[in-house]
Structures are given as C-alpha cells and as structure tokens.
Amino acid sequence: MSTSIKALTIDLKEDGWEKSRGFIKREIPKPTLNESADPADSASVIVKVHYAGLCGSDRGIWNRAAFSDMFKESLASEGKSLRVLGHEFVGEVVEAGSKVEALYGISVGNPVSGDSHVTCGKCFQCRMGEAEVCQDQSILGISIDGIYAEYVKVPAKNLWVVDYERVRPEICAMYDPFGNAVHALSKTDVRGARVAVFGCGQIGLFSVLLARHFGAAKVIGIDVNPDNLKMAEALGAHETILVKPEKKEHDYDVDQAVIDQVMKLTYGKGVDVSMEMAGFNSSVNNCIAATRFGGDVILFGIKDGDFVVPNFSRMVVKGITMHNVIGRQIFKTWQIAQRVLSDETNGVQDKMWNVIMKGGQETIIPLSEFSAELLEERMRAYPKLVFDIQK
Ligand SMILES: [Zn+2]
Ligand SMILES: [Zn+2]
C-alpha cells in the first residue's frame, strides 16, 4: 500500500486545460525510489518540501495563459494526465539514491533548493557549460512533475545545498526566481550605469534590488501599479515612473510619456541598460526606445506569442546589444545568489523579506489553508507568495 500525500496539480483528463483554472489540490501517491525498476532513481532523492514559491509562470498556468503545449505534449509522451505543479522549492533530503552521495556530495538530512530546469548533460551546450540553453531540457512543474507536494522526487544533480542559519527557509525557496534576476544582471556591467527596469513584479523587484546592490548609478523602476513602485523605491530605486494608459494606435506602441520621463531623467541620452521584466509587446518597444545609443536591452519577461517591433533597424542604427535570458547559469548564478543573500551586512535578504514578503504577513500560505479564492485574493495583493507545504 502506498501512502498518499497532498499536492497542487492539474489533471488534463479530469479538469481539462481550457475548462479549468487554478491549481487543484489532490491526494497523490507518495513518490518512492526504486532503483531496480528505474536505474535513474540511483541518482535521485526524495525531498520533504518545506516551502515552495509561486512564480510569475505559475500565475500564467493558474490562468491557463502559458505553456499549454508543453503540458499537453509532455503528459502525452509520459502516457498520463496528471501533472504536479510548482518549481521553486526548499526542503530536506529524506531519502537518497545509492549514487547520490558519491556523485553530488548530497546526503539525507541536507536542506536543499534546486534549479527548476532539468538539463540533459549530454548536448553540445551542456558539455560547453551553457546548460541554461540545453536543447533537451525539462522544467519542473511544467514538462515533468513539480514540487507543490509534501514529498517530491528530484534528480540530485539539480540540487543546491542551503543553510537555514544564513538564509531563512522562506527566502531559500526563492533562489530560483532570484537567480533569474542575478542571471539577467550578469549579462552586462551595471556598475556606474543608468538602469531602467520595465515591470516591477517579483523578478523586476529583485532586479531593482540587485542593480542597486551591484553598483548602478541610477535605477529607474517602471510599472503600472503604484504599490509595486513603492516597493521598488524601498528596495533602492532612485526614481520610479508610473505607466498610465495612453491613447495609442496599436497596443504594441511605446508609452511615449514613459519614454519622455526616462529621457528627462537621463539628460536626453536614454538609459545604459533596459531590463524587460513585464512581458508586454509595448514594454519591449519601450525598452528599445528608452535605451541610449550603444546601450544594452535585456529581455526576460516575454512568454508565448508574436511580437511587433516597428522600425527594428533602430537596433542596428542605435548599436543596441540585445540579451535574452532564460533560467540560471547552473551553478554560477546560484553561487552569486548565495553570496548576495547570505551576507547579513548588505541588507539584501532583509529587504526581500521585509519589503517584498511583508515580513511573511499574508504572503506565506499554509498548504492546508489553500483555496482558489484565497490564492486569487493574495495574488492580487502581493507580488510574491510562498506556500508553507508542511503546515
Ligand atoms: Zn519560476
Ligand atoms: Zn543538454
């Protein structure tokens, strides 16, 4: 008899993709390691999940607005219909395959977070140390089972051992999205630069915090939500710009009032670095228009769909360098994130906890209290939420 555990899921047969929304709490069998049935289990672990973060992409899944093909195709190839959701986690290793200690130095009792991209290790990019662009990767909670469950099975090669004494566990659950911002900021040198962050949701806010920490001379936070801009200021933005609805011919057109303000704040030059963290077509065009000749545009927020970039030749004429960011550099990004988070003197971890997480007030949701209504209310109110999985 297998014991059952609680998990947040979607079942394409029971719930349907188009017909349902949100995450559905279910009892599922507790995962086990069985090396004789599956040799890959020798390099996997069972993690008792303590905390799990709600990513921007999870919000997209909640509204069935992202990754539909990846869910459908991956489940079809696995011959099943239920997917455990979620990919940002921290917990404790409670069982380890026979090769885990020897291969990865990880053992039972270790507190661990881990990268959500399970890479192949064999392709050209993986072999060249560029696993973030592995051509044969799976993503936890999308194309393989994720971590919104009391116990989960994860490949040990994805794990990053954490220390709850240095970084509080709720923040450890955010290594993965914080790492997105670390990775984005590593694309160009922001020391002494003027940096505009378009979109101050969770990863945009992390980017504001990090741009300031990494030595940007002026950080400008830009968003449609005044509450997010207040947080951006508290995290170190020197200036903020509220995006107000403008009369435009097309949705994708630039927000001219925003560009005018950026130009004013940069003495007519434009910013050295624009970071696209919102995902709107207009936001991409805002980034290009707000960046100085010879500057850098870093794209991260974009999800599915086609984009229109009028007068694309501006990219060439202005000599703009475009960077596209996916995932994290494994594990270089994790090492930098750990150093930034675990240095008590720099205030970064405290700002994440006090400003973005409101000191845990209403932003930590016990799995036992999960309901669609509660989560939707909290998603409207806060940029970042974390589940307390064992409570
Ligand atoms: Zn994520
Ligand atoms: Zn690969």
UniProtKB/TrEMBL annotation:
<dbReference type="InterPro" id="IPR050129">
    <property type="entry name" value="Zn_alcohol_dh"/>
</dbReference>
<dbReference type="GO" id="GO:0016491">
    <property type="term" value="F:oxidoreductase activity"/>
</dbReference>
<keyword id="KW-0479">Metal-binding</keyword>
<dbReference type="InterPro" id="IPR013154">
    <property type="entry name" value="ADH-like_N"/>
</dbReference>
<protein>
    <submittedName>
        <fullName>Theronine dehydrogenase</fullName>
    </submittedName>
</protein>
<dbReference type="InterPro" id="IPR002328">
    <property type="entry name" value="ADH_Zn_CS"/>
</dbReference>
<comment type="similarity">
    <text>Belongs to the zinc-containing alcohol dehydrogenase family.</text>
</comment>
<keyword id="KW-0560">Oxidoreductase</keyword>
<dbReference type="InterPro" id="IPR011032">
    <property type="entry name" value="GroES-like_sf"/>
</dbReference>
<dbReference type="InterPro" id="IPR036291">
    <property type="entry name" value="NAD(P)-bd_dom_sf"/>
</dbReference>
<dbReference type="InterPro" id="IPR013149">
    <property type="entry name" value="ADH-like_C"/>
</dbReference>
<dbReference type="Pfam" id="PF00107">
    <property type="entry name" value="ADH_zinc_N"/>
</dbReference>
<keyword id="KW-0862">Zinc</keyword>
<feature type="domain" description="Alcohol dehydrogenase-like N-terminal">
    <location>
        <begin position="44"/>
        <end position="161"/>
    </location>
</feature>
<dbReference type="GO" id="GO:0008270">
    <property type="term" value="F:zinc ion binding"/>
</dbReference>
<dbReference type="Pfam" id="PF08240">
    <property type="entry name" value="ADH_N"/>
</dbReference>
<feature type="domain" description="Alcohol dehydrogenase-like C-terminal">
    <location>
        <begin position="203"/>
        <end position="336"/>
    </location>
</feature>
